[in-house]
Description:
Blueprint: E1 2-8, H1 16-30, E2 34-40, H2 60-68, H3 77-83, H4 86-93, H5 101-112, H6 120-131, E3 138-141, H7 150-157, E4 160-165, H8 168-174, H9 177-189, E5 196-199, H10 202-212, E6 219-221, H11 229-232, E7 242-246, H12 255-265, E8 275-280, H13 289-298, E9 306-310, H14 314-321, E10 326-327, H15 339-346, E11 351-354, H16 359-366, E12 369-372, H17 377-388, H18 391-408, H19 411-423
Parallel strand pairs: 1-2, 1-3, 3-4, 4-5, 5-6, 7-8, 7-10, 8-9, 11-12
Helix pairs in contact: 1-19, 5-9, 12-17, 15-18
Amino acid sequence: xKIIYLIAGTGxxxxxxCLRDHALIQGLRHHGHDVKIAPIYLPLVTDSPIDIESPIxxxxxxxxxxxxxxxxxxxxxLIDKFLNMKWMLSLSSKLAGMTKPHDLGELTLSTLDIxxxxxxxxLEKLSxxxxxQTNVDAVFLxxxxxxxxxxxxxxxLNTKIFCSFQGExxxxxxxxxxxxxKCWQEISKRTxxxxxxxxCSQFYKDVMQMRLEVSSDKIHVIYNxxxxxxxxxxxxxxxxxxxxxLSQFIPGKGVETVLKAFFKLKKDPFLQHLKLNLAGxxxxxxxGYFDKVRSxxxxxxxxxxxxxTSNLTKEQKLDFLGNISILSxxxxxDEAFGLYxxxxxxxxxxxxxxxxxxxxxLIKATNGGVLYESGNMxxxxxxxxxxxxxxxxxxxxGKQGRASASELxxxxxxxxxxxxxxxxx
Length: 425
């Protein structure tokens, strides 16, 4: 089959949605399918090489300038091309945190209604490229923030369109209220241009079905997956006494909660030698937060027992996972999935997660971790302690998690399910 995959890039940091999309494309290509990638907004950042033949469409700089200044809606191709250079876009992505919430809301809304918005010139560039693609069996949109493109794609290619649900609600709900409500409305209006939706979890299917009023039959649950081969090679190291955190450094992921719990655990005589390893991505939307976390660590009496690292390569991530006992990311919102869960489980690392979002579903499906009452610090500390002090339980949960991850979260199996879905229509 020939598939066109439109992926929104980040430009400067790893994100779970991008890694999942890349893993799916690898799986599809492994099965012999022709997948052409069209990056949207910003360059893709992946943890392994990726073959991309097309330019970046709806480049972030051009989109922003055309939103704010009418003169850029008529600039010649040479200027547009310069503003769309990868190094320019990567640089601009690091300044995303400087964008005012009003501007971000306005830009998101106009992108969803791009056929009628000030950036129609960018849509025409994508349309020209799509017109040169022949015999396309399916088009994939990496998430619903790209659904504004669906009506145009349907008109041009008259092919099946699939769109993923990957946790967009947290971003949309963070916009100023007047823009958030309008964005949800624009997405809902365009669901008819999408043939089928793919949700990363049953939990998130239920969330998006309710918010978009889409028929349940139109939403299919296919768990996010990655290439597990390197993770499955990691050998469990018994005897370690290290608590790990692996996610973005943003307030919602709960890194400060991990620190507070760690400080309490260190006062326990049985855990006085406990260490804490924090790793993840610095995100432009939370400027200065990584430095805030470092300052909290520096001011604590346990600074020498804490290691913090940002923007890890895949090799560094594997080394991180090979040197922790358990992983915990105590998010304070309803996470749609959590790719770090399967990275840990595939590495034989048990997880301790709050009983909210997709975590109860994932823990039940894998038996690779333990839940605690969300928002209850006492329960969180007690659960961490009970797991850390039970080496047999760590080994048992790690073994169960690895076996389940291998069965449920392999990217080649994810690709098979997607192919079966495409073939059924």
